[in-house]
Amino acid sequence: MNNKIRLRLVSAGLACVLAAVASVTLAQQKKAQAPKERVVKERLIFAVNEGATTSVSHVELLQRYAGLAEAMERALRRPIKVEVYPDTARFRSELERKRRFDIVFGKTVNLLAGMIRDKEYQAVVKTKTPYVAGFITMKDSPIKTAADLRGRVVMMPERVFTTKLGEATLRELGFKENEVTIHYVRFQEAVAMSVETGAADVGVVNPTVKQDWLKKGNNVLLEAKPVPNWSIIASPALSKAELSRLRRALIALKDSEPGSEVLKTISVPEFVPAANTEYVELLKFIGE
Predict the structure, then answer these.
(1) How far is C-alpha 165 from the geometric centre of its chain's CA atoms?
(2) Phi, psi (5° rounding) for residue 158?
């Protein structure tokens, strides 16, 4: 084979190799330039119940928690739909449906505790300040110690979390049913009014009413056991990685101006980590 033929064969082979390389490079460029397919992730349902403390409309509640939902969306990288439940009875019935909600913010903490114990929900965060109900008396009351409660009339709000704590505290102190007369009224504020007017010797109230009572110069005879306050829990549908991202994001809200605004809007100074065991112990204490 002469040199000219050999040269033509080498040239032809080299041309084939270069063409193949060019083809691969072009394919890679097209792949890189092609728009990425959008991954559509399943929407999460975020339920909110403010317990007996709320007196605002459905629309106002949606607006109040929109910022918190957006913060959770960024952490989880999934869309979130907010559902609000001003009525606690309706909220309770919805919780009974199997894993109806993915994330829940609640102030009726015993309901959330039940979800943790019975439906495998996970405690995510709680407010830093615990919930401490108080037994209030007038400043000139002769009732000075817990033992002085015997034979007295104790007023409690009807069928709310504070009621459970008040009744549990009396049991813990060793009182039998016939040793204390318990009456119930619908609103927390009516409990304080009953004590002021003499309709009751002692009243059991939530932390907010307790603080207002102290500001008036009156007494708090004793306090119930501190328990987790407003809390956020998540269903087992969230992965461990998602749960961890959500917890970190909620705890970090206090560290930025936008996050602090979100907390201010929902009247939460700061979120801290929560553990399942706290809620199980709470249910044991109140006898649920």
Answers:
(1) 19
(2) -90, 125
Q: What is the 3-state secondary structure (H, E, C) of 29-93?
A: HHHHHCCCCCCCCCCEEEEEECHHHCCCCHHHHHHHCHHHHHHHHHHHCCCEEEEECCCHHHHHH
Determine the straight-line distance between the first and last CA of the chain, rounded to whole angstroms.
98
Give the tens place of pLDDT for each residue, 73-119. Answer: 999 999 999 999 988 888 888 888 766 899 999 988 999 999 999 99
Q: Are the C-beta atoms of 220 and 136 separated by less than 8 Å?
A: yes
Residues 187 and 156: their CA atoms lie apart, in Å, by 9
Greatest Cα pair distance in the chain: 125
Average pLDDT across the chain, whole number: 86
Is residue 7 predicted with pLDDT exceeding 50? no
Tell me the backbone φ, ψ of residue 233, rounded to 5 degrees.
-125, 160
Phi, psi at 142, each rounded to 5°: -75, -10
| Whole-angstrom distance, CA of residue 202 vs CA of residue 11 | 104
pLDDT tens for each residue of 131-185: 999 999 999 999 999 999 999 999 999 888 999 999 999 999 999 988 999 999 9
Distance CA 260, CA 255 (A): 7
Where helices occur in the chain by DSSP H, the ranges are: 3-33, 58-64, 66-76, 88-95, 109-119, 161-172, 188-197, 207-215, 240-251, 257-265, 276-286
Q: What pTM, to 2 d.p., does this model score? A: 0.80
Q: Rounded CA gap, 167 and 170, in Å?
A: 5
